[in-house]
Design goal:
Blueprint (H helix, E strand, L loop, with lengths): L4 E4 L18 H12 L6 E4 L6 H4 L5 H12 L21 H20 L5 E4 L20 H12 L4 E5 L6 H6 L6 E8 L23 E6 L5 H19 L3 E5 L17 H18 L5 E4 L10 H12 L12 H11 L27 H13 L8
Parallel strand pairs: 1-2, 1-3, 3-8, 4-5, 4-7, 5-6, 7-8
Helix pairs in contact: 1-9, 1-10, 4-5, 7-8, 7-11, 8-9
């Protein structure tokens, strides 16, 4: 297996553009790639592109009538009437929608293929992680579910156990739905509680069905959860499940919208805690997945200047085994690019100045603490189904 990591990139992914008034501004992708280059990480990874996903690949997850509908509104956005979730406020139709969405999907599928075939141990597609798209509809800014497609392609190639870890602030509902009855896929989502945030799913009692019962895991975090609670929840659930499941490949989704500056959600996580979870996912891949097989995706994140580029540049550095020093001063060339593109001033360092820590689950449980209640609800719901102690 190659020791170098892959970074999936094609400038055309910035064509995934819902319009100037939409919070998912593609400048976040361009600025991330600019920061990756400013730190020289494009020389520490192999920057490659993959072809757009064709219909046969998209059908691994999506219904053909839905793909046909995306293609139609892509040619004539004015024809979108809200059917199939296209032409809504969350997912307004735009010219080239099919092509841009299929390219992002193809990049994630290509990342999965490269990791499975041993061309690289790690592969990153920070343009991906569009985890809300359903087999037959768009949802939550997501047209094609590249995360589910990457997992489905791994299964098609012969993988028997794939773990999917989602730390976006929103529940990874689309990926969970696709593999709801599939015991070969363990889906774990840590997200803000469905009472307070879209999509209103991801309760601890959602554990899968049929042969897949016990393969869906949901940690519903109270609004306001910060670094210590977020890290405590991650480490109280994820490592034990991965040790039991023994995945051949780890696929992770790193939405940056858990951050305290994100305008669309209510967690209070710092960039430094996000980086800590990225490092933990990397370490868990080396510990539990065959040869460290790790596919890392982006996701949400709507503080498009201050947070997203820094968070995902850390992700690329970790995957490249050349982590960026959080205390480093961000190159002036990138701050100039930020101002030229956005007329905003970019951040000065790769840190929020936090030193995040957490208490392990083994250190004790506080029955009056809402965060501990959330962790225990998840463990009680799913751990016994997997033969583990809650």
């Amino acid at each position: 297996m190659s020791g170098r990591a892959l970074l999936m990139w094609d400038d055309a992914v910035t064509g995934y553009d819902f319009g100037s008034s939409h919070p998912m501004d593609p400048v976040r992708l361009a600025l991330t790639m600019g920061l990756v280059r400013a730190y020289g990480l494009d020389r520490a990874v192999d920057v490659v592109s993959a072809p757009a996903a064709g219909d046969s690949t998209l059908r691994l997850v999506h219904h053909q009538d839905y793909v046909d509908a995306v293609r139609r509104v892509s040619l004539d956005p004015r024809s979108a009437d809200g059917s199939y979730g296209l032409g809504t406020m969350d997912d307004p139709a735009f010219a080239g929608m099919h092509e841009a969405s299929a390219l992002i999907a193809g990049e994630s599928v290509g990342a999965a293929e490269a990791v499975w075939h041993g061309e690289a141990a790690h592969a990153v597609n920070f343009a991906g992680g569009l985890h809300h798209a359903m087999p037959g509809s768009a949802s939550g800014f997501c047209v094609y579910n590249d995360a589910a497609l990457a997992v489905a392609r791994l299964l098609e190639l012969g993988a028997e156990r794939v773990a999917y870890i989602d730390v976006d602030v929103h529940h990874g509902d689309g990926v969970q739905a696709v593999f709801w009855e599939d015991p070969r896929v363990l889906t774990v989502s840590l997200h803000e509680h469905p009472r307070t945030l879209f999509p209103g799913t991801g309760w601890p009692e959602e554990t899968g069905a049929g042969a897949g019962e016990g393969s869906a895991v949901n940690v519903a975090l109270p609004a306001g959860t910060g670094d210590e609670g977020w890290l405590r929840a991650f480490h109280s659930v994820v490592p034990e499940l991965l040790a039991d499941f023994r995945p051949q490949v780890l696929v992770t989704q790193h939405g940056a919208d858990t951050h305290f500056e994100d305008p669309l959600a209510h967690l209070a996580v710092s960039l430094d805690a996000q980086r800590a979870v990225q490092e933990a996912c990397h370490d868990l891949a080396h510990e539990h997945a065959d040869g460290g097989r790790w596919v890392a995706l982006g996701g949400g994140g709507y503080a498009v200047v201050d947070v997203v580029p820094r968070s995902w540049t850390h992700l690329v550095g970790i995957a490249a085994h050349e982590p960026v020093d959080p205390e480093s001063v961000i190159p002036a060339s990138w701050r100039d690019e930020v101002y030229a593109r956005t007329r905003q001033l970019g951040p000065g360092r790769m840190t929020d100045g936090r030193t995040p820590g957490w208490r392990s689950w083994e250190s004790g449980y506080d029955p009056a603490d809402r965060l501990d209640q959330a962790i225990l609800a998840t463990r009680k719901a799913v751990f016994p189904l997997r033969g583990l102690l809650a």
